[in-house]
């Protein structure tokens, strides 16, 4: 919870010692999300090959991802 909007909603505002991260914007509809999700999954699968994993699930179970 880092945006000013989220902090206002959940804790009543941004504390003096904190800085908000990002901002809340409305993004116009651009189409189904499935294409974007497939791109993200493709990137994850590619990452698995770099670390020697055979699948996303197996890589997550085997390696520590920081």
UniProtKB/TrEMBL annotation:
Q: Which domain of life is it from?
A: Bacteria
EC class: oxidoreductase
Offer an example of a GO molecular function term for this protein: GMP reductase activity
UniProtKB keywords: Oxidoreductase
Cite the Gene3D superfamilies for this sequence.
Answer: Aldolase class I (3.20.20.70)
Please state the Enzyme Commission number of this protein: 1.7.1.7
PANTHER family reported for this sequence: GMP REDUCTASE (PTHR43170), GMP REDUCTASE 2 (PTHR43170:SF4)
Return the protein name.
GMP reductase
């Amino acid at each position: 919870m880092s945006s000013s909007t989220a902090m206002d909603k959940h804790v009543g505002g941004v504390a003096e010692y904190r800085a908000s991260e990002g901002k809340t914007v409305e993004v116009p509809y651009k189409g189904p999300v499935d294409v974007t999700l497939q791109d993200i999954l493709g990137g994850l699968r590619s990452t698995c090959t770099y670390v020697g994993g055979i699948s996303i699930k197996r890589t997550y179970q085997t390696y520590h991802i920081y």
